[in-house]
Amino acid sequence: MENNVHIRIKTYQEVDGEVDEPIELETFGKYGMLNGNHYLIYEESEMTGFEDTTTTIKAGKGFVTVTRKGKYNMQMRYVVGERNLCLYQTPYGETAVQINTQKIDRNLDENGGRLRVEYTLDEDNMCFVKNALHVQVQKLENNKEKRL
User: Comparing C-alpha atoms, which of 98, 102, 110 is closest to residue 132?
Assistant: First the structure.
């Protein structure tokens, strides 16, 4: 499958009441549906700190998973009201955290749309990072890849 969508991703982070500048990524990727789930696949960049890594976002009814494979491997599962354990791998090392999802807002169809996830990363039952993931997906005309 060729790249068929333009993707805008913003991640927001708040630590101890201090809001960091959002990390933004604009790229092209692959988007489609299978068994009622929406799949988005794209390559990470140096800007996000996960270069040489492919990310797959799967959005289903009531859940979202983010899976990274390549230089950095991990899977994060977001379900409102559940705590999910994740071994979070970064350029600075690996840490075990719990994902506590507060909100999932999914407005996706065959042409794209948006996805928002709000969650905290908890360590030893203490919230240490509040996060928000905002994804916008726009189908490309004639499925031709365009340059940024």
Answer: 102
